[in-house]
UniProtKB/TrEMBL annotation, chain A:
Protein name: NitT/TauT family transport system permease protein
Pfam families tied to this protein: BPD_transp_1 (PF00528)
The species this protein was found in: Ruegeria conchae
Cellular compartment(s): Cell membrane
PROSITE patterns in UniProt: ABC_TM1
Listed GO biological process terms: transmembrane transport
Keywords noted in UniProt: Cell membrane, Membrane, Transmembrane, Transmembrane helix, Transport
Major subcellular site: membrane
From TrEMBL, chain B:
UniProt GO BP: transmembrane transport
Chain ranges passing through the membrane: 32-48, 55-72, 92-110, 122-144, 150-169, 202-226, 246-268
Domain of life: Bacteria
Keyword Membrane annotated: yes
Protein's recorded name: NitT/TauT family transport system permease protein
Record has Transmembrane helix as a keyword: yes
Record organism: Ruegeria conchae
From TrEMBL, chains C, E:
Domain ABC transporter stretches: 13-240
SUPFAM superfamilies given in the database record: P-loop containing nucleoside triphosphate hydrolases (SSF52540)
Species per Swiss-Prot/TrEMBL record: Ruegeria conchae
Example of a GO MF term: ATP binding
Superkingdom of source: Bacteria
InterPro entries, sorted: AAA+_ATPase, ABC_transporter-like_ATP-bd, ABC_transporter-like_CS, ABC_transporter_ATP-bind, P-loop_NTPase
Name of protein: NitT/TauT family transport system ATP-binding protein
Protein family per UniProt: Belongs to the ABC transporter superfamily.
Length: 305, 281, 265, 307, 265
């Protein structure tokens, strides 16, 4: 309850700041429009206004302030503009329509899910290898860190082209980029998790003369569950970013990334912002869903108190 | 065919060497901890070279490491200029501003519970905004030079740093806090003497995550507009010109810079949090 | 009987009540607790796990707020007393800060209370001697054994001049020999400084050996079932534990405990 | 037979001919099953074809010639676009009237292989591109929209007659406020939107035959699009998966595109090729190509396809 | 004296040595340890912290490899004995797996050793009765008090038929009353099953009360300073602790400990 009040307060504060920020951000564009429409603007020429202070401009031309919240292509769209756009492109469009955000969200989501499954699968396998083989631990782990310093996003177009060349197209290239991004947090989290049993718990199994696989299934795997879920949550958000990145270079085909690109290409700031928010909401939903699964699983395992 | 067999041989050799090292008597020494990944890296590079040569992969798809190496040495001045533009100006300044302001914000969040309850969920939401969407907006707002890149980096590192620092500041155990209570310590006394030191492992965790984010952010932001300089600019332009060797040379720079940056932060961490069990092990 | 009536009470609880609200419903941790402790007394609290010993100590130190009844310390509320820095508290685990050396850990309260640097050094030296830890000032907590850590945490509580020393099972983790030794030292310190001490323990001999007053508690809800004023003299060599008076008091404590335990074994 | 075509950019009227040919069944008539892959901001069509991801690609000639020098033997087999649509669009009130006025300004330029015509032009003008000075300009790598001009971050930006220019106009700017320099008018135009394939494939008779049919059907599509611009624009819209394109913009674009394709029957005019090569060879200190290209185009396909 | 010579030794250590290599140099944890334990004996290990009690127990269970001397268990090496599942080990902390219910925790060794499902259920039922935990099968560890957890971990070690039960301070965290009760039960169990038991404790009365043989150890380097064969009968009511024999043995243990402690108090 207290949390809801707090969140709403913070949101309200953000919205107010946002509206206020629209004024200096958009005032120059608005004044240019007003000038073209014949209004009297101080100073009258766009060239003079170019290097002027925005807040001063807004004060000098107070009549133009309301228009900063209504521009068609603002530098910073007002919150209600984004909200209306999202409403129109989700609820008011058929979800099969190419103009529906839900359709595009679904396209992105399917690549995200595929990539997430591949990424986590590989991540867990690698983590198991690292935990069980000292050779892998010594030689692979440092490179996993180095691999994260490579700007994969910059490589996305090349990856896609290379995959084209072996005949892989469509959802797979996106999924691979998304898998690459989700892979690392899962490896790190799972290595930590699989190593989380303490010496005593391991010794206990030794006194039973348990085999390695028994040790894995009965001790390491269950013990790693909380870590797994934490890293899955990070991983799924990364996956989504990966899928969106993968959509950019393949051209404005479909998906939230394509929406972002098209919005950017045609200067449709409102569309960019609504695609951005759609992506963030999608991420929040995925993380929330994982949180829900986490809670039920851990509860059934008796690990949530 | 022969290069492919060679590649398999290189793989087996690398694996054999590392197995020997790992199970040998010195497997816990620093030397091995350094050597094993090196051997692994060299193995991968060897295989790469042989496969590219063996299958005659075109240069415009994947250049061989030797070609990249030559390009790297030939283009040092360009690479250096790009490095300064992207890493020093864009990534580093954004990193400092972002981590610094996140730290200050974390103190405020820690101080007022209301902020923690309200801001953190919103913060997590904002952190989920994909960089490829925010970068063009920030380029539009902050111009083409490194300022917009720094802004992208600030946005990227702010929330991971905030979340980690806030978690860290709550890390002190109830008993440690109670002790401060019995001394009737003021807020700032208990902050400086208890919560801040206890938070250090978490703060460094955030700082480490942020290093790679900063690098990636600065490079990717250049895709959306830049002066004719910078690693992201060079990568995308070189792809267009099919100079894949240059692309990979820049990637080498990014990996080197990222590893060095990460390593530096990890070293400072070791010095500051020497007392933490994870550093003593 | 010897001290309670002669001096004004330092700690006075009347019908003290404390209920924790938890997700599984309320837990009645303390119920109708009445206790009066005079200046310079050594009070031990003993009772089965979960009977509210720690909770009561925390109430005295203003770390917990009672939900009913009254509690005064030196005639003030516990919170005022806390602000006057009346308490030295030793927690069950040593709770040293791992990033500070032993000496710096002991200096912690002194820094907070604004002692001069010279005074800090002097006091650290004094209390380290008191707990036999000379030469370990520069070590970090994790370089010391559990027993040494516990002693350092006692030194930390002694470093400043708190009237009231509250100790929650300080010797729980130590072996018998070390424990005996520290018991002797604690008694000597108490005799010298006239501090009022509240002491939680699970060991009957320890409680009887140390205390002027033994408070036996029982759980669900936590309450005091017996308060035993010790007839033992203030001067207590270790072998006092073989005297009939000692064995008798120990027996009474054991009976009280057993009664409180009931079915819960 | 299957043919994969890689476009240079996203689905829009710039590629109307191919979409029309597909939609109207012209490819089918030739017995072809054509897959059209849209491009995007960071996709290099030359790289796609090098990797075998496409049989034929739409590319600009400077990029294709540059790739050829890099060892990727691309050959122009058809040239549906006669003229160049590229231009530089500037604010008039910034005081720019002639190319000489560009000195000491900030210009937005596309990179990713599209910077070659601009670089050649600047070197012909004797203007350096290392930064603002009395004899130089500051070059920005502009993104794929017209914001830098609208936000006045740049004095001039690159635009296409059929696309970005109209976005500026759509943003409320009147043509009178702008000054444009068409590369065509400046004599530095280079050939755009040609069809390119890998040289080694051409010696394969089956492939050559496939390309003949492809070019024939494509040109039929182009001519149909020229004659029915509105219908062509709608076909493009139907093929746009993002749902971001507007009908108005695509119809107008189709109109402009028709002007560029008008003079071509699909066969490359060697004179245009030579002019392009000259322009590129003149390209200053860091020229796009260093030597006269050899065998970079052929009439083999168009001769067979169009006669 | 009573059992050692009549049966073949189950555990036999000769000049056992163990040195840990650490960053701060080697630590000599065990030096020249000689011990022979017969079948069905109850051996307690007592000594100050760090004297190597745990280390010795771990050597027996093949969790640590000695660096010198010889050690046989049932005539085999400890590792062979481990593979024959000769050991039930109770660690100092309960160490239950938090994601398993009490019943499932007790089943863990049974699953690993491949008992049938019916047999598992039956054994769980039996050992839960033995430690007075009927009705708690479905609970998770954190829903139980510390004492109950410790009992569950003892049940886990009893569930399969290990010859040798090794217990490392199993009752360290419990209060005296609960401890007494568990001591009685452990003795009863031992009398019934004829297991050989190795038991580490810090409490002198506990060691004397339980054992047929008390091993006193001293640190730096860890070695055995005294082995006391108990003259007490096998049948031991709780009040045997007030008999002169008991007090005498306790005294001898205390003296041995004090000697070993030396300066290290
Ligand atoms: N913060 C809390 N919230 C809810 N319940 C609590 C809290 N602290 C203590 N309790 C409950 O209050 C009761 C008394 O706890 P307390 O810690 O005082 O026991 P104790 O006598 O110190 O036991 P022990 O000997 O185990 O330390 C217990 O039932 C405990 O579960
Ligand atoms: N894995 C290890 N590495 C290095 N030193 C160790 C290790 N295990 C134990 N030691 C050292 O060996 C000595 C004996 O330790 P051990 O745990 O056997 O003592 P203990 O008698 O069980 O003490 P306690 O009563 O505190 O449990 C100690 O000095 C300890 O520090
Ligand atoms: Mg307690
Ligand atoms: Mg031990």
């Amino acid at each position: 309850m207290k949390q809801i009040v707090a969140v709403l307060t913070v949101l309200a504060a953000i919205v107010i700041v946002w509206y206020a920020a629209c004024i200096p951000m958009n005032i120059k564009g608005v004044l240019t429009e007003q000038e073209r429409a014949g209004a009297e603007v101080q100073p009258p020429s766009a060239k003079d206004r170019r290097d002027m202070d925005e807040i001063g401009l807004a004060l000098n031309n107070a009549f133009a302030i309301p228009a900063t919240w209504e521009q068609e292509r603002p530098r910073l769209p007002a919150p209600h503009q984004v909200a209306i756009e999202m409403w129109e492109t989700t609820v008011q469009k058929k979800i099969t329509s190419k103009r529906s955000l839900i359709y595009h969200g679904w396209v992105t989501l399917s690549a995200t899910m595929l990539g997430f499954v591949i990424g986590t699968g590989l991540g867990i396998l690698l983590a198991v290898g690292i935990v069980h083989s000292r050779v892998m631990d010594l030689s692979v782990m440092p490179w996993a860190i180095v691999s994260q310093t490579i700007p994969i996003i910059a490589l996305a177009p090349m990856i896609i082209v290379v995959l084209y060349s072996v005949g892989v197209q469509g959802i797979i290239p996106k999924a691979i980029i998304s898998a690459y991004l989700s892979f690392f947090p899962v490896v790190v989290g799972m290595v930590k998790g699989l190593r989380s049993p303490d010496a005593m718990q391991l010794d206990l199994l030794r006194t039973y003369n348990a085999s390695r696989s028994q040790g894995f299934w009965k001790l390491r795997l269950p013990a790693s569950m909380p870590y797994l879920f934490t890293s899955l949550k990070i991983g799924v958000a990364a996956s989504l970013v990966g899928a969106i990145v993968g959509e950019l270079p393949t051209g404005a085909v479909a998906g939230l990334g394509a929406r972002l690109l098209a919005g950017s290409y045609y200067g449709q700031t409102v569309q960019i912002w609504s695609a951005l928010f759609a992506a963030a909401i999608l991420a929040a939903c995925l993380v929330g869903l994982l949180g829900l699964i986490e809670r039920t699983v851990l509860k059934r395992m008796g690990m949530a108190q | 065919m022969i290069p492919i067999l060679g590649a398999i041989a290189v793989w087996l050799l690398g694996w054999w060497l590392n197995s020997r090292l790992a199970s040998g008597p010195y497997s816990d020494t620093r030397m091995v901890r350094f050597l094993a990944p090196l051997i692994f890296g060299l193995t991968v590079i060897g295989i790469w070279e042989l496969v590219v040569r063996g299958l005659e992969v075109p240069l415009v798809i994947l250049p061989a490491p030797s070609v990249i190496w030559v390009r790297f040495w030939d283009s040092l001045p360009t690479l250096w200029a790009d490095f300064v533009q992207t890493i020093i100006k864009g990534a580093l300044s954004g990193y400092l501003i972002g981590c610094g302001s996140a730290f200050l914000m974390a103190i405020a969040v820690d101080r007022w519970d209301f902020l923690r309850l309200g801001l953190l969920p919103v913060g997590n939401f904002v952190a989920a905004l994909p960089i490829v969407g925010t970068a063009p907006i920030l380029v539009m707002w902050f111009g083409f030079d490194w300022h917009s890149k720094a802004a992208v980096v600030v946005v990227m590192v702010f929330f991971p740093m905030l979340v980690n620092t806030v978690a860290g500041l709550r890390e002190a155990t109830a008993m440690q806090r109670d002790l401060m209570e019995t001394y009737a310590a003021t807020y700032w006394q208990s902050f400086l003497k208890l919560r801040l030191p206890a938070a250090m492992p978490f703060i460094f965790n955030g700082l480490k995550i942020s290093t790679t984010l900063a690098l990636i952010g600065a490079i990717v932001a250049e895709f959306f507009g830049s002066p004719t300089l910078g690693m992201g600019f060079r990568i995308s332009t070189s792809v267009g010109q099919l100079s894949l060797d240059m692309v990979w040379a820049e990637i080498v720079v990014a990996a080197l810079a990222g590893t060095a940056f990460y390593g530096l932060v990890a070293m400072i961490e070791k010095a500051v949090t020497f007392w933490h069990p994870s550093q003593r092990g | 009987m010897n001290t309670e009536n002669t001096t004004q009470p330092v700690i006075e609880a009347r019908q003290l009540d404390l209920t924790f609200q938890t997700n599984d419903g309320p837990i009645h941790a303390l119920k109708d607790v009445n206790l009066s402790v005079g200046k310079g007394e050594f009070v031990s609290f003993i009772g089965p796990s979960g009977c509210g010993k720690t909770t009561f100590l925390r109430c005295i130190a203003a770390l917990e707020t009672p939900t009913g009844g009254s509690l005064t310390v030196n005639g003030m509320t516990p919170d005022e007393a806390r602000r006057n820095r009346a308490y030295g508290y030793v927690f069950q685990a040593a709770g040293l800060y791992p990033w500070r050396t032993i000496a710096k850990n002991i200096k912690l309260p002194l820094e907070i209370m604004g002692y001069s640097s010279a005074e800090q050094d002097e006091r650290v030296k004094k209390v380290l001697e008191l707990v036999d830890l000379e030469g370990f000032e520069g070590k970090f907590p994790w370089q010391l054994s559990g027993g040494m850590q516990q002693r350092a945490s006692i030194a930390r509580a002694l470093a400043f001049d708190a009237d009231i020393l509250l100790m929650d099972e300080p010797f729980g983790a130590l072996d018998e020999i070390v424990r005996d030794h520290l018991n002797e030292q604690l008694l000597a310190l108490w005799a010298r400084t006239e501090k009022t001490i509240g002491f939680v323990t699970h060991s009957i001999p320890e409680a009887v050996y140390l205390s002027t007053k033994i408070v036996v508690m029982s759980p669900r809800p936590g309450r005091i079932t017996d308060v035993i004023d010790s007839p033992l003299p203030k001067e207590r060599p270790l072998d006092i534990r073989d005297t009939p008076e000692f064995i008798e008091v120990a027996h009474r404590v054991r009976e009280g405990l057993r009664a409180g335990h009931g079915d819960d074994v | 037979d299957e043919v994969t075509l890689q476009l240079k950019w996203v689905t829009q009227a710039q590629f109307a001919g191919y979409y029309v040919a597909k939609d109207k069944g012209f490819y089918e008539e030739e017995g072809l099953d054509v897959t059209i892959l849209p491009g995007g901001p960071d996709i290099a069509p030359t790289q796609v074809i090098a990797g075998g991801g496409a049989d034929v690609t739409v590319e600009w000639m400077p990029a294709a010639l540059a790739a050829r020098e890099k060892g990727l033997p691309l050959v122009n087999i058809a040239q549906p676009f006669k003229s160049s649509g590229m231009m530089l669009t500037c604010w008039k009130d910034a005081g720019i009237a002639a190319p000489e006025d560009l000195k000491n300004r900030t210009l937005g330029v596309w990179f990713f292989g599209n910077e070659f015509p601009f670089m050649s032009w600047m070197s012909q003008l004797g203007i350096s591109t290392d930064g603002k000075s009395d004899s130089g300009v500051e070059v920005l790598k502009q993104g794929f929209n017209v914001d830098p001009l609208l936000q006045r971050q740049a004095d001039c930006i690159s635009t296409m007659t059929y696309n970005e220019y109209w976005q500026v106009i759509d943003a409320g700017v009147t043509p009178e406020e702008l000054v444009t320099f068409k590369y065509e008018d400046q004599g530095v135009a280079t050939l755009e939107d040609g069809l390119y394939v890998l040289e080694e494939n051409l010696s394969d008779a089956a492939f050559a035959d496939k390309m003949e049919r492809f070019v024939r059907a494509s040109m039929k599509g182009w001519k149909y699009a020229e004659e029915n611009p509105d219908e062509a624009a709608e076909i493009v819209l139907e093929n746009d998966a993002t749902g971001a394109q507007t009908e108005e913009h695509q119809k107008r674009m189709m109109g402009e595109i028709a002007k560029l394709t008008a003079g071509s029957n699909g066969a490359l005019d060697p004179a245009d090729f030579n002019r392009t090569v000259e322009t590129l060879l003149a390209g200053g200190s860091d020229p796009v190509i260093t030597k006269q290209p050899d065998g970079a185009w052929t009439h083999q396909i168009t001769d067979a396809a169009l006669n």
